[in-house]
Amino acid sequence: MVGGGQLARMTQPAAVALGVRLKVLAAGPDESAAQVVHDPVIADEKALADLRAFAAGCDVLTFDHEHVPPAHLEALEADGVLVRPGSAALLHAQDKGVMRSRLTSLGIPCPRWTVVSGPDEVASFAASLGGDVVLKTTRGGYDGKGVWLVTSSTPAEVVAEPFRAGVPVLAEERVDYARELSAVVARSPHGQAVAYPVVESVQRDGICVEVVAPAPGLSSDLAVEAQRLALTIASALDVVGVLAVELFETVDGRLLVNELAMRPHNSGHWSIDGAVTSQFENHLRAVLNLPLGSPVARAPYTVMVNLLGGDLPDVYPAYRHVMARDPELKVHWYGKGVRPGRKVGHVTAYGSDLADLRSRAWHAADYIRGDIDE
Predict the structure, then answer these.
(1) What is the rounded distance in angstroms from the CA atom of residue 63 to the CA atom of residue 134?
(2) How many CB atoms are located within 10 Å of the residue 186 CB?
(3) Whole-model pTM over 0.90
(4) Cβ proximity of 11 and 38 under 8 Å
(5) pLDDT (tens digit, 9 = 90+) per residue, 305-327?
(6) C-alpha pair distances (Å), 58 with each of 83, 143, 281, 318
(7) Architecture label for domain 6-83
(8) What ranges in the chain are assigned the alpha helix state H?
(9) So what's the architecture of 112-173 in CATH?
(10) Using an 8 Å Cβ cutoff, are 281 and 300 in contact?
(11) Which residues of the chain carry a pLDDT beneath 50?
(12) Which SS3 state, helix, strand or coil, does residue 12 take?
């Protein structure tokens, strides 16, 4: 697995259970996965020579992020390395312009969009919509970074900012949505696929703070449609592994595709405790061409709340309190240093009373963050 973040870290227990030796290429020895995987390879994921040396000892290469240069992936494949998902598929998660173009050609519902080269084209696109515009750098953005909202009152210098990155800029309509959903599926090389329950994803300042599985109040028709869209995209793009399709549920009851991720995803972390087979295990099963496991939920609801760094530099005393106060909670730590707003872990609660689960999960997160003291 290329990348030593928390996704690789959470893949390790699944690898142990499957009897699989997981190798990790990490940028440094203190990265999340490097702390728990035996003999991590410390190297530069953007250096082709380092990637080639790492891949030489692997049966299959997969990823915990989308930041490996596409040309390097193509070179590895030309060398005969088994890369899953392949470079042709992964490009759609690396480049938002490529993604939008392909999904539109497939008839997948998306926000109205265009690629723009400067502020004048942004103004023209906004005029054609008669509304606000969202600008996104086509490559490199995540967790709200690389995203700008442009309204009629946005200063010219802000509109010009996205173009300073030197990459194409995607302009999209600002969608009037009721909530954000995520459909996570896993697909193997021979086309077997499974779909997890569609979840509601709550964002704050561009960062996911809560996931509820399944999405409360979602009609069966929309849930099936969201899963159908995700499975269709996975098949059409020949995705191998986990695919997360982030969706807008519009106020008028439609689904629009927002983003794609071809790896385990924050909106699927609930599955570690709440599903028969976690997204991490199914990602490994898929890339190794093993039969996929059941994605069925273990309880009527699972709530996952991200633990974000706050005012407490040492969270261990708070961690002990949370464990003692609510033994049924599951707390997962990523081995990261604490700083405000940084994802340092997550907590899950599962059962049948959604209001109770939410209350308990948020109490734990707020206590660990230091927002409450009782």
Answers:
(1) 28
(2) 29
(3) yes
(4) no
(5) 999 887 667 788 888 999 999 99
(6) 10, 30, 18, 40
(7) 3-Layer(aba) Sandwich (3.40)
(8) 6-18, 48-55, 70-78, 87-94, 96-105, 119-129, 156-160, 220-236, 271-274, 279-287, 316-325, 354-369
(9) 2-Layer Sandwich (3.30)
(10) no
(11) none
(12) helix
